[in-house]
Amino acid sequence: MSKWVTTGVVIGWLMLGFASTWATADNISPQAVIGWKLFFDPLLSRPKNTSCATCHDPAKGYGDGLPLGKGAYGQTLPRHTPSVVNLQNAPHLFWDGRVQSLKDQAIVPLTNPIEMDMTPPEIVSRVAAQPHYQRAFAAIDVDNIGIEDIVGAIVAFERALVTGPTVFDRWLQGDKDALNAAQKRGRMIFFTRGQCAICHVGHNFTDHEFHNVGTGTANDLGRFVITQQPEDQGSFKTPSLRNWKGREPFMHDGRFASMRDVLAFYSNPPAPQVGESELDPLELDDDEITDLLAFLETLNGAWPDLSFYAAAWEKLISP
Ligand code: HEC
Ligand code: HEC
């Protein structure tokens, strides 16, 4: 036990660093303001009915609240729509990590025939035909709008999607009264007996690695699809647990409607359908689950403040 306690303390200490800046009207870049407009603009999809925000809806934790995503023509996508906050330092994107930067990621949904179904030249001509985008880009010295300017703006907006400090952040910074008794017990479970921090570690509670927790299926082999390495069968990217509340359902296929369902799963993980699960059955009792849940609640901070963007946009495009 004491080895686990030490590990927990060391891990907890390591979690102090790497916070990104909270975006405000005073520090937001004009590029991010243009990105905000583009992120919410259905003009970027062929039938003009779907924006990034249709699927990454701020009111739903920047996801869509559905088990599996839904494309511009109503098709069901193969995976659950993840949140897009706190991705500033993410080395791999998508559940299988097939893309390494936000820049390379954004073009994927834009051009996927079952998502937004556009081509780069079509996107450019639609955006460049709008006087307000012409004025906005001219304000950042772009007179000849190209796809990299459009993607660059979307990425600048995504990079500004930082969530606010949490109760647990306050505790880490030395406020020992920030956690109540149940939350403190839950913290011990998270970092020791529950083994959660083996994978959900660091400022955003993810190691940015791929693991098999027994959720892969014959239909979705996860990371294996990209690497073809047998050991990657059934592995998915560890999702962040920062600001989990509001982005239910959970997992790459949205199989769990609530955090309680997730904890019941970790307590008694079923046999994996593909590959070998890395999980040990925890057999948490009801009190432990309640405490763990109490701790997990302390990982939720404010969602990004978008209230200043509309005024910033108006200012940017005013002559
Ligand atoms: C039709 C719904 C839909 C639309 C529209 C959409 N996305 Fe997504 N997005 C998804 C799904 C589903 C995934 C996960 C796919 C996977 O992992 O295979 C995803 C994944 C992502 C990720 C990776 C997050 C992570 O943690 O790995 C980012 C970033 C992202 N989308 C940004 C965008 C941007 C920017 C746009 C607009 C240009 C956009 N998305 C449009 C459904 C959508
Ligand atoms: C061996 C690594 C590992 C361990 C240990 C682990 N997780 Fe996970 N966790 C993952 C991976 C990988 C996923 C994604 C699986 C998927 O999408 O099918 C995940 C998914 C989740 C999700 C869903 C989040 C979302 O956005 O969909 C939650 C919540 C979660 N884990 C909480 C926990 C808790 C609580 C513990 C400890 C009881 C724990 N995990 C232990 C690797 C791990």
UniProtKB/TrEMBL annotation:
Heme c 2 binds at C196, C199, H200. One of its GO terms (cellular component) is periplasmic space. GO terms for molecular function: cytochrome-c peroxidase activity; electron transfer activity; heme binding; metal ion binding. Binds 2 heme groups per subunit. It comes from the Bacteria. This is Cytochrome c domain-containing protein. PROSITE patterns: CYTC (PS51007). Heme c 1 binds at C52, C55, H56. It comes from Entotheonella factor. Keywords: Heme, Iron, Metal-binding, Oxidoreductase, Periplasm, Signal.
